[in-house]
Amino acid sequence: MTLIQLLLPAVDGEQRVETERLTRTRHELVDRFGGITAYLRAPAQGVWTSSEGHREQDHMIMVEIVTKTLDRTWWRQYTAELARRFEQEVIHVRALQIEVLNDDVGDAQP
User: Fold this and answer.
1) For residues 69 and 2, is the Cβ–Cβ distance under 8 A?
2) Distance between CA 47 and CA 57 in Å, rounded?
3) What is the distance between the alpha carbons of residues 16 and 78, in angstroms, rounded to a whole number?
4) Which pLDDT value is given to residue 39?
5) Which H or E run contains 7?
6) Cα–Cα 20 to 30 A to 76, which of 46, 84, 85, 96?
7) pLDDT value of position 34
8) 45: which residues sit within 8 A by CB, 6+ positions away?
9) Cα separation of 70 and 57, whole Å?
10) How does residue 42 score in pLDDT terms, banded at 50, 70 and 90?
11) What structural domains does the chain harbor?
């Protein structure tokens, strides 16, 4: 099993990202994978040093999907689409191999 984690922007400039973009993304992922978990209440804060040397920060929402298979080509295309949708240079996505302890989780996954 694979756990996919996406970090989506919660704030665009000084404004919260409108729910339409998040809702559309949620529907797409649920339609494809049968379910997701999205942590919406307390956005995480990321801080990093830019290539110009100054500190940047971002507020993000984590979305998790559990799937039996990892389609790397689909994820590359989809995260490129999400980057356009959310007006980001890149959407951070990671895939982790996991062991699910209850056998019924992930049965509806592709």
Assistant:
1) yes
2) 4
3) 22
4) 87
5) strand 2-9
6) 46
7) 95
8) 57, 58, 59, 60
9) 30
10) low
11) 2-47+57-97 (3.30.70)
